[in-house]
Predict the 3D structure of the following.
Amino acid sequence: MLPGHTIFVNTTTPPGPRKRWFPSSIADPALFHGIMHISAAHIAGSQRKRPSPAYFQHRGEVIRLINRRITYNHNATSDGTISAISCLLVSDVC
């Protein structure tokens, strides 16, 4: 283990940013479903199983919400929309 990196031993997320994105994830439905989508992907990956139905439900919902925002220009460039798109990118790349 690298010196100074022991804070990550017992957690899958760093403690600092969690306080920043968690309140936003509750307030923004697209970001909420994006984070739930990543969580479901993480669980499936860590258990070496196929993604659960929740994975596909949250993925579909975040795509639907983002599509609606972009189509109707409602919060198309908001932090929540950009963060939700980032969640989809993370799940597709990893």
